[in-house]
Amino acid sequence: MISFREATKVFGSGPDAVRAVDSVTLDVGEGEIFGVIGYSGAGKSTLVRLVNALETVTSGQVVVDGHDVTTLGESELRQLRASIGMVFQQFNLMKSRTVAGNVAYPLKVARWPKERRKQRVAELLDFVGLADKARTYPGQLSGGQKQRVGIARALATSPKILLADEATSALDPDTTQDVLALLKRVNRELGVTVVVITHEMDVIRSIAQRVAVMEHGKVVEHGRVYDVFAAPRERATRRFVGTALRDRPTPEVLERLRHRHPGRMVTVGVRDGQGSGTDLTATLRRHGVDGSIVFGGITEIDERPFGSLTVELAGDEESIDALIAELRRTADVHDLGTREHPRNDPSAVVAGDEQPSSPDAPGISGAGGADEIAGPATGLSAGSATGLGTPPERSSGGFQ
Amino acid sequence: MNSDWSTLAPILLESLRETLYMVSVTLLISGALGLLMGVLLYATRRGNLLENAAIFTVLNIAVNIVRPIPFIIFITAVGPLTLMTIGTTIGNEAVIFAMSIMASFITARIVEQNLVATDPGVIEAARAVGASRLRIILTVLIPESLAPLVLGYTFLLIGIIDMSALAGYIGGGGLGDFAIVYGYQRFNWEVTFVTVVVIVVLVQLAQVLGNWLARKALHR
Questions:
Q1: How far away is chain A from the Cα of B143, in angstroms, using its nearest Cα?
Q2: N or C: lower Cβ tally within 10 Å for chain A?
Q3: ipTM of the complex
């Protein structure tokens, strides 16, 4: 649906030139929700503007729905733009027009007759749940409502592609979920290909199927969201993944865990088609080992289970070793050792020093007692394990 | 001091009528010309919709040259041009001619400054739905800036009333002329005072009307 081939955008010239987008080659498939994540200044907003030619490439190629954007003239570009919807972080609604007037604007540009326009506007406002706000001015709406108007406007001419540029970044967490759910509906019910630009991994986790990670104008990593979460290769990617999922203990948390739990601890990954909580309890029982869950979380990525559980094991050493060996056959297991003989398996520990120093950075949030779950000391039953199950879609990053 | 208001009142009324005539015609002409120049100044600036360095530079310099000239000097300086165009340098029409030129350049700057405050995101959103540049100027840029523009035009209107009073000095007619001929030159302070009151009331009415229209345009 959208192909970037060595797409490059340079702003300015000479020594001050900035390569906002640097040789990006990427394909977005028809009907998918594709996420682009990066810190501000990574070039993701410029990248998405290359799609509807609000910015034009300096070199390389952008092909949208079979049209090479780089060769189109101004009037053809206007037609192309009309066939691509766009949603903005600051909503960008016209304050001088009512909600209905804003939604009708693209239809006026596309020269729809008045009657059809009215009908379409009513349809769209109904779709986004704002039928009663048609005659209200944007100044009187909340942020979430404004963004729903923005989405209705973007969908007015039934585009095949919707570009969402930080569409939820100006919204509170609840409203973010509403807007994300709406974008999902747009994708599912209307079959619109959605490109989501964000700096929040949680947005990617909630709705995207594939993701590209951008840094300094380049795509440093891309693939299925599940795979990227499961095995992030680049440092930037690991940081984003760390902010969305806090299921693995940070070094600080691990230190406290060891203080409370002197026994052998392991972190067991929970993946789609791999080990699960039920397998874990069954295996424990077979080896006569008791386990108590001391940390972890399971959430959904791309609608499949994902997370990990950190368990303190109690039993004789031989049984524990045999148990770990067996678990390793079906799940990815990180042995943290005991308090006496600690093993710092780096892949089990989210490095705290790499986190941005925001108040919700894992190293700090992990300090709360509620973040750690003290499981029963003995015989973890299957029931209690699945009870931890999959948190509702709204929860961010699962429980810890 | 003996003011004969039975003869002065009709002259005052006639002067008021002349002032209103000069002011409204000037407002219409300079409002339209100034809007055009102001939109061009804004849109031809670097990075904007109709980026054009030549047009921008010429307009920008012209505005910067004309605007700071004191109007009383400007009106005499354009005398030859007025004579060529209107056929005389005194009377209402001559004053309207000079005022329209000056007010157009002032308006151009007022309009430009109000348009600069337009949210560029809204313009980008209009571009994203495929609107042409001209359409964006007419259906997004100007409507979105309507409230400040109305206030800008109110400021302009009051400036024109002010200019029209000055024009009395060179025999342009109107309230300024009245105040000078019947007040200042005859040492009749009372006439000057009454004229001042009339002008103040006029300005107040203009401001109240402007504020009311701007509030209506805001949609808050």
A1: 6
A2: N
A3: 0.83
